[in-house]
Amino acid sequence: MTAQKVSSTIVVGGSYVIPEAITQRLPGVVRYAGSDRYATSTAIAQGLTLNTDRVYVVTGLNFADALTAGNLAAHSFSPVIMVDNTIPEARFKFLNRPQRNNHRSGHCGRDRDYQRRSRNQTTYASS
Questions:
Q1: Any idea what DSSP says for residue 61?
Q2: With b meaning 16 or more CB within 10 Å and e meaning fewer, what string describes 97-106?
Q3: CA distances in angstroms from 18 to 12, 49, 52, 70, listed in the order given
Q4: Residues 124, 104: contact at Cβ < 8 Å?
Q5: Which helix (H) or strand (E) covers residue 80, if one does?
Q6: Judging by beta carbons within 10 Å of its beta carbon (0-12, 13-18, 19+), is residue 119 exposed, middle or buried?
Q7: Which of 47, 54, 102, 114 is the 20 to 30 Å CA partner of 74?
Q8: Is the pTM of this model over 0.85?
Q9: How confident is the model over 95-118, as pLDDT tens digits?
């Protein structure tokens, strides 16, 4: 990595996923992690400088939804937030900040919970 002049590294996941023994050998590590994949997705969205005017909400229960939304989000430098059958409070607060358009990918049980709790515009992206 020295030959490529890498000066910083973004590590996604806790030390259980990527051990400290590995990150200690990397330059300028910034780790984004949470207690699970859902909290990690929120940590990334809060930690990176992303376009939060548009947020993609996906189920963490279906790989294809996150894969599809990830490609869409990359085009606008937008975050991807993972949820399961409900929306935990930390993610709900992030999603309901002012001036937010939330895009959901796929269909899962959380749809009714999200519609009930959200006051923002929601559009759909099917995978």
A1: T
A2: eeebebbbbb
A3: 8, 23, 27, 21
A4: yes
A5: strand 80-83
A6: exposed
A7: 114
A8: no
A9: 776 554 555 554 444 444 444 444
